[in-house]
Amino acid sequence: MPLVRWAFNIRQPLLLENVKPLVTCLTDGDESKQNIVPVSNLLNYLPKVEADALLQVRLEDDMRRALVGRLMVHAFFTAHHSCHWEELVFDCSESTSPVLIAPEPLKNVSFRISHHGDWVILVGETEEDANGSSSPVRLGVDVVDFQAPGHDHVSFESFSASFQDQFTAKEMSFMAEASDSDDASSEPMAENQLRRFYRLWCLKESIVKALDVGIDFNLKSIEMTIQDTEETQTPILSTVMEVHDPKPELLPKEGWSFEEALLDSDHCYAIAAQSSSSASSPSSKEDSGAIMDGSEIKRVDWKELLQNAVPYPVTAAQANL
Which of 48, 95, 165, 255 has a CA 20 to 30 Å removed from the CA of 183? Predict the structure, then answer.
């Protein structure tokens, strides 16, 4: 089943030429930036309840990432599922991802978004089930900024003790083998160790998001084996998962395939896809591998993101405020 895989760098300036005429507010100050529009103007392209929620986000980068994520979901459905931008309705549920409730025929389309650092990523299936049943594909995606603070000043020995409940002995060995130091146990984690940690964490998080489960999930029950250790922007499809007992609920052992790659020198991403049809098929390896085609993820710009965007209509209640 074909997948859309989009990546958007939030550092791209939003130019006036990329947005509709209703956006008129430009940045003040530097004349060289007079064609740059504040991204907050794009709140017009979301339902008021979503826009109001985003306005409560205190940090500008957090708001920008969340806003771009919601716009990407809209752009995905309008581009690949023949619906109108302003028809999309999402439920504010306890799910870790937006839940589409209208249009009705698209409710079971699998999609996920993730954001961290400079990047927002969307993965989604391009074919809805004609029978309206649950989607046969579980999708999960995660993106990680290698430069995120938190682990760069701890020793690998201390790190191992802190994360022994999330990583298996084999995974810890994989990280330790990347040491740049002769005595990694007493010095801060080497850069390569840290990158391998984030890479494994990204893969595990992609599975958690595919299952749509919370923080209580036993990460140590899933063991990731990275066979291509060299980081590359060309997607790596050889990574495999082994499930250890006791197997968590809702975790199918079969039918999984993975894609991981660099977005740039400071960010990596991972996609997990689990096909129930491939898990039950004798040729499951071939079928699951077809989910990921090995092509490089598509980097989307503002023009592509907003090409089908229209403002959400103002309701009568809003108009009377």
Answer: 165
